[in-house]
Amino acid sequence: xxxxxxxxxxxxxxxxxxxxxxxVFRDLGVEEPTxxxxxxxxxxxPDGPSSTARPAPDPLGPGGDEDVAAHARAAALTHHRTxxxxxxxxxxxxxxxxxxxxxxxxxxxxxxxxxxxxxxxxGAPPATAGADPEPRWEDYAPAEPPASDPDxxxxxRLLDSDYQRGLAKARLTHQRALREWRTRQAEAGSPAVDESxxxxxxxxxxxxxxxxxxxxxxxxxxxAYRQAEPAAVESLLERALAAAETNTRxxxxxxxxxxxxxxxxxxxxxxxxxxxxxxxxxxxxLAPDGEVLPVPRPPADRASDYLRLVARLALRALxxxxxxxxxxxxxxxxxxxxxxxxxxxxxxxxxxVDADRDALARTRLLPPTDPDEEPDGExxxxxAEQDEALVRLRQLDAAVSPDPxxxxxxxxxxxxxxxVPAAPDLSANEFAQLVRELLTRGGLGQWSVRLRGPxxxxxxxxxxxxxxxxxxxxxxxxxxxxxxxxxxxxTLAEAVREESAERGLRLTTGRFTDGALDLTGExxxxxxHLVDGDGVRELTHxxxxxxxxxxx
Length: 552
Fold this sequence. Notes:
Number of strands: 12
Order of helices and strands: HHHHHHEEEEHEEHHEHEEEHEHEH
Strand order of the largest sheet: 1-2-5-6-7
Number of helices: 13
Helix content: 25-40%
């Protein structure tokens, strides 16, 4: 600290002279500290109270700091991986929500385009709007100043300052408008402007023509659709199915459509999402030895979540097909959900629905989006047996895989490989629709189905007197390759007696045994009539004008 001349401190701190510490150390008999001793303590001076004192032992033991750091790193890694799994679960929940959003109907009216003309880019009026008039001074000249005394002489305008200022401003405005007008006139006659305007007009005409041609083609598609032409019906269905994917573009689920005029049925092939879209883990945990271990989900929970998702996708496709068919061309819809895995493995059918129009009309296809309507308040992760989408699919008698991760498939209700199907390619509803159509065209009315299964049906009908099928009939129709024997003919004869009918018809897409043919020639069974596979194809060609392919 510095001192003033009177011996008082002035408060300023100064560093000691370089030789001061050296002289002090020399007086004490020790050497000056060097740079090798960062503590600045002279050699020989012990660090602590005693030169023989030992350091305190580490309470964590040997390597304790490293163990704590490794445990902290493992805990952080566990937390990070668990957050990643939670993000996968949140994405699945979001997909489940978005896949259940309502589908907008893609009918013909919603697809019409409208032409709205666009003005020329510079904002100038079109050449056909008339000539641009030259600005006139009369439109800009200010009004004359009013006279202060009506009976006195007029006030000289040169002495009115306000009038002179207004007059000068009006002249400037008129000159500016005149220059702009002359510029427009000069540009209007330039080849570049004429070419630009001509190109704009041609582009607008092309836009209007494109809209008109598109609407004309759409009207032609509507006409073809109303006539049930397969290409038109398939095009309309696939556009509706593609539009239904708008809410889940990050989850590709393309759907293809095949229309069968024979049964007026659309067969939809839906590509299901990969199995790994559902998280396989519930999270991660830290083992006592510091290892990060995955926590797998129960297989049943994972399978339930996947089925819940594909059920929503299937209902969405069914709703899109039903909503777009405003003219009721379709008599039914078959949907098959296929899992296509990489590696060349054959596709696996995990879901199949065979629904006629009446069943679709009775079913509210999409599950509720209001969380309050979900069972037990568990949201999208409710029990699969109570999931609304799966419940509604089962109401449509859908076949659903019990274990998609175990590769347990189901039998497709119908094959969409060909537009002209054979009998084995038909679904149960298609076959029932075909039999009813054939016999109704033959004159059998008041159709009533008593029993129906995957391979056939039993129904009754009545034909008026004078028709090809007069009286009351019991019809037993089945599809299959196996022969129909005598026992089934006798069973049909008993059903005819129980129904108080007059005749029975046994129809099969296969053939009859010789014994069955001989039995119908006897007196007690002459009222039983037989139609085999060749007869079914002949009736199809005669009454419907369409072909049923021969059996595989």
